[in-house]
Amino acid sequence: MSGNQKTSHKKGKQTILLKLRILLLGVQGEGGLLIRLLVYFLLIGIGFVYLYPLIYMGSYSLKSLDDLLNPLVNWIPTSLYLDNYETAGKVLKFVPTLLKTLYVTALPALVQTAVAALIGYGFGRFKFPLHRTLFALVLTTFIIPPQVLMIPRYVFFDALGIIGSIQSFLLPALFGQGLNSAIFILIFYQFFRMMPLALEEAAHLDGAGHLKIFIKIAMPLAVPAIIISFLFSFVWYWNETTLAATYFGNQLTTLPIELQRFTATYDKMNAGGGTSGAVDSINEGISMAGTMLTILPLLLVYFFTQRWFVEGIDRSGITGE
How far apart are CA 64 and CA 82, in angstroms? Predict the structure, then answer.
């Protein structure tokens, strides 16, 4: 074999190895086959961890008592048994409890979002004495668990006569002290800081005041931050049971609170029914149906708002970009 042939053979071998390396590992800015397989494997694994509880609850909530007792029936029930949902709906008093839950979660979430936007705009666009100190104090409130302030607030709210009403949630939200308000203030602060000053200067030249600029210019531009803040606030108020049970007492209730009392309520409803204990006692299918009914509104909210939710995270700057 001549020298030229050896050189050509060596270059051909290097080219093949280079193509194989690009295929497996990829090039800068584009992952190869191995990288993609690794990413898919991680995504599938993480997705399974999150979806497994939902799949489990959905499967068991549709099982009859015979399917639950049958060791051969594992994931797929022999038939769709919807009586579990009917029973769970009666125990939870689903429709009236859902309306009360929406009332005590959506309204405080709206107020908290509006107030956080106003505070974030003030910190982001104005300079005043002790600006940094006050902003640091606002962010410090995020690390204080709300349960630490629960007793002092209860005494204060009791003195105001607002225990047992939604005002115990609305009052802190109105003053920027709702559930995790500090993180929403930070989101709006970062968003408004990125807003071009030229827009405000042009509005000032047209005779607009600060409030009009905030309502007409800043808020429409802050739609991604508003969506993120409202959705997170809504979910956190929805899932809050300790503060809700303490402040609302027996006057107001929510689906998560009723879910905590699910077994006791079911036993009370079936006490003295005159049937066998095996039938009267709650089973896993009914419990899972009650849990599914409790989280179903949140799943629907995310299903219909996921596009705006993802766009809001991408555009609001909370990813650190």
Answer: 9
Q: Which CATH superfamily hosts domain 91-316? A: MetI-like (1.10.3720.10)
Rounded to an integer, what distance in angstroms lies between the CA atom of residue 308 and that of residue 295?
Answer: 20
Q: Where are the domains of the chain?
A: 33-81, 91-316
What percent of the chain stands above pLDDT 70? 83
Is the four-CA dihedral 150, 153, 155, 159 of positive or negative sign? negative
CB under 8 Å to 120, separation ≥6 — which residues?
Answer: 184, 185, 186, 187, 188, 189, 191, 192
Please give the pLDDT value at position 276.
43
Closest among 254, 247, 228, 240 to 113, alpha carbons compared:
228
Its pTM stands at 0.80
- C-alpha–C-alpha distance, residues 211 and 186, integer Å: 20
pLDDT attached to residue 275:
43
Q: Which residues of the chain fall short of a pLDDT of 50?
A: 274-279, 319-321
Q: Which residues contact 309 (CB under 8 A, 6 or more apart)?
A: 227, 228, 231, 302
Residue 229 · residue 188 · CB < 8 Å: yes
Single out the residue of 240, 249, 258 nearest to residue 294, CA to CA: 258
Token look-up 């003295």 returns 272
* Phi and psi at residue 30, to the nearest 5°: -145, 120
Distance CA 36, CA 52 (A): 23
Amino acid at 179: L
Name the helix (H) or strand (E) containing 34.
helix 33-61
Cα-based angle 130, 132, 134 (whole degrees, multiple of 5): 65
Strands 26-27 and 30-31 come out as: antiparallel
Show the DSSP H helices in 215-283 as ranges: 219-221, 223-239, 242-248, 255-260, 262-269, 277-280
